[in-house]
Amino acid sequence: AEIMRAEGNLQRKTKSRGELPEVTAALGQARALLAKGDTDQAARQTELALRLDPHSAAGWFQHGEIAARIGANARAIADFLKTIDLDPHRYSAYEALDPLLARGGQFARLINLWSAYNQLEPGDGRGWLGRARNHARAGHLRQAMDDADEACRHGTAAGCQLRDEVRQKMRI
Questions:
Q1: Which of 141, 169, 163 is nearest to 151 (CA)?
Q2: Of 21, 30, 75, 74, nearest to 48 (Cα)?
Q3: Which of 23, 54, 60, 132 has the most crowded Cβ, counting Cβ within 10 A?
Q4: Strand ranges (DSSP E) for 39-121?
Q5: What is the reported pTM?
Q6: How do residues 105-157 score in pLDDT, each as one tens digit?
């Protein structure tokens, strides 16, 4: 019976990017608590989920959201990086990480992260836009315009707008 339970647990854990049901339930409870503004209890529930499955990208992402909400930026950055490590296709982790690193002026690091995302998801204009914004923040206007143009080609309206803004700056 123990061997059969262990095999069942192993099969559940090795599902392609699926979360364990108990992890999903704990994260759901944590989200409900977070919606009510109870960050302490939400953090405890999320940490419970991470103890159940320390490889849960959803758990690390939610832990990072809680950390960002309470102002623990270093913890949030580490959690979002862990999320990206576990699930490099999760756009929301890059999006959440961007303003945290930008506050510290870490544009080169962000450019590298967005570049990695663009290699994984070359047709996602949001990734090109993320890289374009960080090139612009770093003062690399030519690269910003090229990436914004790529974002525009992939149907991201904000990319078209950024491309036009950068063109104006380059003409001045």
A1: 163
A2: 30
A3: 132
A4: none
A5: 0.84
A6: 999 999 999 999 999 999 999 999 999 999 999 999 999 999 999 999 999 99
Tell me how far apart the alpha carbons of residues 26 and 14 are, in angstroms, rounded to a whole number. 19
| DSSP assignments along the chain, one per residue | -HHHHHHHHHHHHTSSSPPPHHHHHHHHHHHHHHHTT-HHHHHHHHHHHHHH-TT-HHHHHHHHHHHHHTT-HHHHHHHHHHHHHH-TT-HHHHHHHHHHHHHTT-HHHHHHHHHHHHHH-TT-HHHHHHHHHHHHHHT-HHHHHHHHHHHHHTT-HHHHHHHHHHHHHHH-
Encoding tokens for residue 104? 């510290």
